[in-house]
Amino acid sequence: MVTFHIITIFPKMFASYLNEGVLGRAVNKKKKIKINFYNPRDFVKNKHKKVDDSPYGGGPGMVMMAEPILKAWQKAKGKKKKVKTIILSPRGKLFTNLYGRRILDEYRHIILISGRYEGLDARIKKVTKGEEISIGQYVLSGGELPALVLIDAISRQVKGVLGDFSSVEENRISSGELYTRPREIKYKNKKYKVPEVLISGYHRKIDEWREKRQ
Ligand code: SAM
Hints:
With 214 residues, the protein is α/β, with parallel strands linked by helices. It has helices spanning 15-18, 21-29, 66-77, 97-106, 123-128, 144-155, 164-171, 196-199, 203-212, and strands spanning 2-7, 33-38, 52-53, 63-64, 83-94, 109-113, 131-134, 184-187, 190-193. The chain folds into two domains: 2-165, SPOUT methyltransferase, trefoil knot domain (Alpha/beta knot), CATH 3.40.1280; 173-211, no CATH class.
């Protein structure tokens, strides 16, 4: 079982994605993945549940305050010894499948800190020793989508999340071109057929064909 601890001020954003398809089955049926949420707003005492403030030294936008996030992080971490903390950031190291696999080799608890506004108070990184990870060279409005991207990609590599066949296939040959029924479709008077080799039943030839198209 792998547990993702998500620190976010928008926990409701996650439900529909995490409860459907492969991930939904992994969480609800197979119990291979567990998801916990920690909302920094639950850790502030002020009346308006404010978790952001203007930046010292001036500048545009607001900054997420360190204390509410650090309290949420402490709650997520509890007394667990081996916990990986990841801070979602467009300036971080680019996420890859290989990175995900390495995390899984070492950790069963992964804390994901989703930023909002202009980003996080820098002391959050200093205290948590979190690693900044980006999902691509573009800026999104928050770390919630990036957190979902990591959860999805990492969960697919947890044993038992994909069926045996799919996980073997995923590591083996995946073709850039996939076809299913019907064998022929028509668009604007032109016919588009499934390549003959895929219907031939010769698995060696099919593998060769797929390899060429990777
Ligand atoms: N200028 C800010 C910066 O460089 O961090 C942009 C902050 S962005 C509007 C708000 C939050 O969205 C970030 O703190 C981060 O958590 C998340 N975010 C945005 N783009 C991201 C990306 N490409 N990868 C990972 N996280 C991202």
